[in-house]
């Protein structure tokens, strides 16, 4: 099935979990992956794999199966994506359990955390739980990269997330607006490594 149609179906099924009407563009994926150089001891953890819009580009920079772990809540999406990317470690799970999922995987240190979750539309309790997991990885030293859509950039949940991260880890590095994405988005990066 066409990736855009699959994504739209997932959005219509549960708009609070998906958060967008189209998968991330190649241009947004390029911004999300800029500077990431994983290996078996410094892995990439992707939260919110979705239809694999970022994953398909991650596949090109992952040197081995042991250099990547993807977590996606939607079991149907995971079945589909695992058939497309059989050489990647993608599991069904909640980003709110990311730290324990990673520990159970036996994979190397999370040095790169790619978060594709819609913080603006997540319920506060879920957002807080995911943020607590992110903090655990950040406190061990890693680079976090997220994106925020331009239309939601000044909404209270987006501002709150940036303020929390700024107070704890300093100012983010923000990319130029990625116009070739639906909707346009910024990437934000914090690093403690």
Total strand count, please?
Answer: 7
Distance between the termini: 40 Å
Mean pLDDT: 91
Helix content: 25-40%
Total helical segments: 8
**Order of strands across the main sheet:** 3-2-1-4-5-7-6
* Percentage of β-strand residues: 15-25%
Biggest pleated sheet = 7 strands, mixed
Label the overall shape.
Answer: globular
Number of domains: 1
- CATH topology call: Rossmann fold
List SSEs in N-to-C order. Answer: HHHEHEHEHEHEHEE
- Give the radius of gyration: 15 Å
Please give a structural write-up.
Residues 14-19 have low confidence and may be disordered. The radius of gyration is 15 Å and the shape is globular. It has a 7-stranded mixed sheet with strand order 3-2-1-4-5-7-6, with helices on both faces. It is an alpha/beta fold and 193 residues long. The protein starts with a helix and ends with a strand. The protein is built from 8 helices and 7 strands; from the N terminus they run αααβαβαβαβαβαββ. The protein has a single domain (25-191), classed as Vaccinia Virus protein VP39 (Rossmann fold, 3-Layer(aba) Sandwich). Helix 5 (75-84) links the parallel strand 2 (68-72) and strand 3 (90-92).
């Amino acid at each position: 099935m066409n990736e855009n149609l699959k994504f739209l179906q997932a959005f219509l099924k549960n708009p609070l979990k998906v958060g967008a009407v189209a998968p991330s563009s190649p241009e947004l994926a390029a911004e999300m992956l800029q500077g990431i150089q994983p290996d078996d001891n410094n892995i990439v953890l992707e939260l919110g794999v979705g239809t694999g819009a970022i994953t398909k580009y991650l596949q090109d920079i992952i040197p081995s199966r042991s250099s990547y772990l993807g977590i996606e809540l939607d079991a149907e999406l995971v079945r589909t994506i695992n058939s497309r990317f059989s050489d990647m470690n993608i599991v069904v799970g909640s980003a709110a359990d990311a730290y324990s999922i990673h520990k159970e995987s036996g994979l190397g240190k999370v040095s790169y955390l790619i978060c594709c979750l819609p913080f603006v539309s997540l319920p506060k309790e879920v957002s807080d739980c995911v943020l607590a997991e992110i903090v655990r990885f950040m406190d061990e030293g890693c680079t976090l990269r997220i994106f925020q859509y331009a239309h939601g950039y000044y909404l209270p949940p987006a501002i709150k997330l940036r303020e929390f991260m700024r107070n704890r880890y300093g100012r983010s590095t923000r990319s130029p607006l990625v116009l070739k994405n639906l909707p346009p988005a910024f990437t934000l990066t914090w690093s403690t490594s």
